[in-house]
Amino acid sequence: MSKQDKRGKPPIGANRAHPRRKVDPRRRTIGLHGWHRAGLPTFYSIREFCRTSSLGKTSAHELIRTGELKCYKIGRRVLIPKWAAIDYLMRLPRVKSSK
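RESULT FIELD:
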């Protein structure tokens, strides 16, 4: 028999589906944790790429669809290598100074 609280519900975490967990913001910066330490490529999720490049989600998906931004798909997750993000941003036209 499982223990129950005053309302007759089992305590949180006792054979119960957990609610959506909050992600520690320090761990959210790298798509696959630990790869950067092994010298292997690091990745951005779509959200991380949009945050770092100041682009919208729709624009990022359009860049991927047209092939301007390289990405990998693992299951439902889309990963953008950092080298591909840097390569895309470096290909953008430079702003001429107003002087």
